[in-house]
Amino acid sequence: MFKRITIKEFSDQIGVSTATVSRAFSSSGRISEKTRRMIIAKAQELGYHANIHASSLAAHKSNVISFFYPSIGYDQPDYFIMEIQLGLHAALQQSGLLLQTHPLPPAPHQQATLTIYRDYILSGGPQGIIIVAGSPESVELVEMARAAQIPYSVIGHMGIEPQYTVTFDNAAGAEQAARYFVKTKRRHPAYIGGQLDKRKIRGFAQGLNIPPEQVLHLPGGYTFAHGAAAFRELIQNHPETDCLLCANDVIAVGAMRAAFEAGYVIPERLAVIGFDDARFSRFYQPALSSVSLNMQQLGSSAMNQLFQQFDGKEVKAEFVTCDLIIRESC
What we know:
Elements: H1 7-14, H2 18-24, H3 33-46, H4 52-59, E1 64-70, H5 79-92, E2 98-104, H6 110-122, E3 128-132, H7 136-148, E4 152-155, E5 165-168, H8 170-183, E6 189-192, H9 198-208, E7 217-218, H10 224-237, E8 243-246, H11 249-261, E9 271-276, E10 289-292, H12 295-310, E11 318-320, E12 323-325
Parallel strand pairs: 1-2, 1-3, 3-4, 4-5, 5-11, 6-7, 6-8, 8-9, 9-10
Antiparallel strand pairs: 10-12
Helix pairs in contact: 1-2, 3-7, 5-12, 6-7, 8-9, 10-11
């Protein structure tokens, strides 16, 4: 729990003027980036909370919920994020609140965009914030929300935030996929990666009963083309592969396309399981088996955590289970 101190007490402790502190927590006034970061860091260390957000709400209560997420790029839709947004919108119905989405762009634009988001957050723009974990910028956004005393919820695993989180166990989902391959007597498994693979590889290895370093792992990515390219490389070096777990459904569909072109019959010759259970997976031919992260529930649960904070209720970390959905591809 933060100790509540006044702006005068805080400014005296860190050796700057109250005006400089005010500038650090607003988008007005000139202040160096180095000084701003120092003041925000000291605020968290000493327990100081700016009143920018409170005064903003006194004048005009914000009706905006801001959704921040690490962007995979601009050349293809992010189906993982789109599914989460469906859950966010469902939970917002009848609330009178608006949802704004803010991607955290890939290099080299992160810091410029983060500066804009920082000014928006610290000046009391949103009433609440939902942040998808997975990047250093996501961590910075949580620190900003804390400094500005804005309710927030994190989707995914973030070491600095144990309470206001909605997490999922993708390691357990990958383990389920591996055990299914073992049960159906597949002998030569492989894994095509995507983003944040460590937990998935660990779970896959657990289900195969082998050390993680022995998992046949190819880097994939996030596009259909990435999945196709990875599969072509896989069969060139490991033609015996008879089952495949992919880090997301997009690269799984790309891999299946390349498999068809190479003359593979699915699932007889090659069993394929994707990850996320995006809506399009069930309409592909053959319908893609997938580890469902129940993404809409992730979104609705995160929004409900914000509602609890708005009402002054205690918030507990929430865990959403993963489910293996078997369709025609395995």
